[in-house]
Amino acid sequence: MTFGAAKGGPMKHAMAGLLHLAFHPRQERFKAKTENEVVPPTALKKPVLDAKEYGVGKPVEFRWNQLLSFDACVQCGKCEAACPAFASGQPLNPKKLIQDLVTGMVGGSDSQYAGSPTPGIAVGNHSGAPGKPLISQMIEADTIWSCTTCRACVQECPMLIEHVDAIVDMRRNQTLVEDIVPGKGPITLANLRETGSQNGYDIGARYDWSVDLQVQVAQPGRFVDVLLIAGEGAFDMRYQRTLRALAKVLNKAGVDYAVLGSVETDTGDTARRLGDEATFQQCASKLMNTLSQYQFRRIVTADPHVLHSLRNEYRALGGYYEVQHHTAFMAELVANGKLTPKAAAVLADKKITYHDPCYLGRYNGETEAPRKLLKTIGIKVVEMERHGMRARCCGGGGGAPLTDIPGKQRIPDIRIADAKTVGADVVAVGCPQCTAMLEGVVGERPEVLDVAELVAAALE
């Protein structure tokens, strides 16, 4: 067994696989969730910047159990088949990436790799060693910046390998040590540090869309049941339609809610995905300090990226909040009899499919509430082939629209093609980034509507 493992044959994968399960980098994946769990299974672990944990630039800098997990790869190709970047022809193949990391640790070139190559990158021209830089020698920079962090690869992997963690670790080194972020990434990160908004907007204008809807602004000392946090998308006119629909639904149900108004700043999600841990922690500390001044029972948001940061990743920083996605909250209102929506004939006659946001489905396990809510309205959801926990990404996560690595086609084009295949007239969504990406598809396509817009229309 030892000889077989040392030669790198099947026994190596068998032994590494067993040890990997015993010493998995995310032991939380095997534990029942608890209320005060510090790092949930889908949240990135908090690096200690004061201890110079600036990501991974060389193979030897990965944690030992991460290296063990790479050895556990059996090259089945399930991650490759699920990856939206690979499908679009961008220079990322998750299977090849993991094999490159294995090769980098043992030393040598990728000339022996026999699987599908990374799109646009020839096999045999890259080599590495444990102490040599990974980027540009073993792995091309565009490979790690193509990832949308959708976790489809992780979801499909039979060996439970955490591809996304490895990619973010390498991005962190590129950002914090090498000061290299492609595309519009550097501008976005600078805006977050200086203004608390990804696009450098005046944060005082974040809730201008709500002035005629009697939306309360939270006041210190006044308790509210629900604190509505809109996120960066509130500056976008298209997302404002969703937020206005949501506010109308909350008003109709008589919910005691308020918004943060001009003191709301960005959660820092995009900064963390781009590897700028310092800016993420700065944004998180600022928002947590703001939230500590208000009294509320729970937070509701229509942005799954906001939800994931507040619900899961802020825990490692000491922030514990009850956070609900707006679809789950509206489903609760209907179940409690506070809303009785009924789809108009014009909607009931249309074929409607639901697109699962990655940060709501795979990251937070919420796939049923939106469907249950649409069913309650009277809408029959026609499912796309890839849906639920295996849904295809829209291409909007992980800072991918900012780094903008070219491929042969756009990821949202592929997703809209999925909707067309089932004959959908409307694609129901639950995320502002999904809305923006899918509506950006040119040519004839289904209408894209947020679930809140469908509920609001059913109440009129």
Quick tags:
7% strand; 460 residues; three-stranded parallel sheet; alpha/beta
End-to-end C-alpha gap: 69 Å
Percent helix, as a range, is 40-55%
Number of extended strands = 9
Query: How does the major sheet shape up?
Result: 4 strands, parallel
Question: So how many helices?
Answer: 21
Q: What's the domain count?
A: 3
- The share of residues in extended strands comes to 5-15%
Query: CATH fold name of the largest domain, please?
Result: Fumarate Reductase Iron-sulfur Protein, Chain B, domain 2
Strand order of the largest sheet: 4-3-5-6
Gyration radius, in Å: 22 Å
CATH class of the largest domain: Mainly Alpha
| Second CATH tier, the architecture of the largest domain | Orthogonal Bundle
Overall form: globular
Q: Stretches where pLDDT falls below 50 for ≥5 residues?
A: none
Classification by helices and strands? alpha/beta
- Look at the structure and give the mean pLDDT: 93
H and E string? HHHHHHEEHHHHEHEHHEHEHHEHHHEHEH
Description:
There is one protein chain. The chain is an alpha/beta fold and 460 residues long. The chain folds into three domains: 153 residues, Fumarate Reductase Iron-sulfur Protein, Chain B, domain 2 (Orthogonal Bundle), CATH 1.10.1060; 141 residues, no CATH class; 122 residues, Rossmann fold (3-Layer(aba) Sandwich). The protein is 40% helix and 7% strand. The chain contains 21 helices and nine strands. The strands form three sheets. It has a four-stranded parallel β-sheet with strand order 4-3-5-6. Helix 11 links the parallel strand 3 and strand 4. The longest helix has 17 residues.
